[in-house]
Amino acid sequence: MKMGDMKQKSKQLKKTDAAIVACSFTLTATAELQLFPAGEFRSVDGRPTEVDFWFIDAAIAAVLIADLSARKNRIVIDYEHQTLLSKDNGKPAPAAGWFKTVEWREGEGLFATDVEWTATAQAHIEAKEYLYFSPVFAYSKTTGAVQKILLGAVTNSPALDGMSEATITAASQLLTHTESLTMDLEALLERLRWMFNLPTLATTDDILVEVNKAVDLIKAENATAAASFNLIAHLSAQHQSIASLTAQVATPDPAKFVPVTVMQDLQTQLAALNKKINEDEVNDLVTVALSDSRLLPTQEAWARSLGESDIAALRSYIATAQPIVALTATQTGGNIPEGDGITDLTESQLAVCKQMGVSPEDYKKTLQASA
Question: 149, 54 in Cβ contact below 8 A?
């Protein structure tokens, strides 16, 4: 595989193609430690077998540097990879040192620049009781590109010489666990974005704002909400309440509700009854007012029309109207008039005609009818 192809593929790493390996570099008891050489490299035992070589460049190094910067904990350096073996052999895995800060040096490789050795480890190294540093890392089985730094060890078995399958298995489990935590966190964030209807690029801070809003609403609704509050149970109870109300609306209790058609029929009957009552009252009011001359015959149509639209106004008018005396008494004082009983209207009668808007002829007819 050509170097150019390796660099291109290093930008398209797939974690599912990852493998675990450890290689070694000569130790010095200083704060600076080389982790990887620049470019292509292999171990002395013939690995890797899936690709021609392992590979790291500035672009890959930048990813590794960012990954280490994002971690809260430092990378441990133990003795002979005992961190990976302790589960099987039951022995403790004391630390020889720690590091977190790394930098890329073009043409040289990737270096840890803040190594902190324990006093015991420094003494071993200075006494040359340990000669090599062996980083454990994940790499792509299709490109050989370094993907993740897992841990390191001081060792006298360089580049996987004598490294057991148990060690490789343990390292694989460590990588799987690390990636699983990352994947689980991303899955959780994705579900929270969906729950709060947030865009896919919403940050953890954005999500936290919405979570806090939900918490405030829950506390406002239930002042006793605390550690014992169960959101799923709360939502389930709300759902059941809504379902119960929906069922009641869909199948109402006949003892408590009546059909819309029945209500409409009652409203129609009530309206008709009210109309009949109004009509009877208007008829009574007009009839009485006509009989005592508070209304003239020519006003009857107007009075009935007013009663249909505003019966209160008709009541008020008739209550305040004064009977026309000339229409309720005869000019002869009850005596039979001479001739046909109709004489010329007096000035006062003409004034009444003018005031009431009645023609003298109609007025004469009214006098004759009442005579």
Answer: no
- pLDDT tens digits, one per residue of 196-236: 888 887 887 888 888 888 888 877 776 555 556 667 777 77
CA 327, CA 356: separation in Å to the nearest integer?
12
User: What's the pLDDT tens digit per position in 297-327?
Assistant: 888 888 888 878 888 888 888 888 887 765 5
Tell me 133's DSSP state.
E
Of 127, 133, 128, give the one whose Cα is nearest residue 115.
133
Alpha-helical segments (H) within 71-163: 82-89, 119-126
Which residue type is seen at 357?
Answer: G
Tokens 């801070």 appear where? 205
Average pLDDT of span 117-123: 93
Pair 52, 58: CB distance under 8 Å:
no
Cis, bond preceding 92 (omega within 30 deg of 0)? no
Structural element, H or E, at residue 221: helix 204-221
Classify 3 as helix, strand or coil.
helix
* Measured distance CA(120)–CA(73) in Å, rounded: 22
Q: Which two tokens stand for residue 102?
A: 């790394």
Q: Nearest 5°: CA angle at 76, between 72 and 77? A: 160
- Tell me which range, 41-45, 117-121, 148-152, is most confidently predicted by mean pLDDT: 117-121
In angstroms, the CA 82 to CA 90 distance is 10
> pLDDT per residue over 253-276, tens digit each?
666 666 778 778 888 888 887 888
In angstroms, rounded to a whole number, what is the distance separating the alpha carbons of residues 292 and 259? 50
Contact (CB, 8 A) for 155 and 130: yes
DSSP 23-77: --EE--SSS-EEEEESEEE--TT---SSSS-EEE-HHHHHHHHHHHHH-SSPEEE
Q: How far apart are CA 139 and CA 20, in angstroms?
A: 6
Amino acid at 333: G
Strand partners, 155: 132
- Global pTM? 0.41
User: What's the token pair of residue 183?
Assistant: 């994947």
List the beta bridge partners of residue 20.
138
Q: Which amino acid is at 210?
A: E
User: Count of CB atoms within 10 A of residue 83's CB?
Assistant: 24
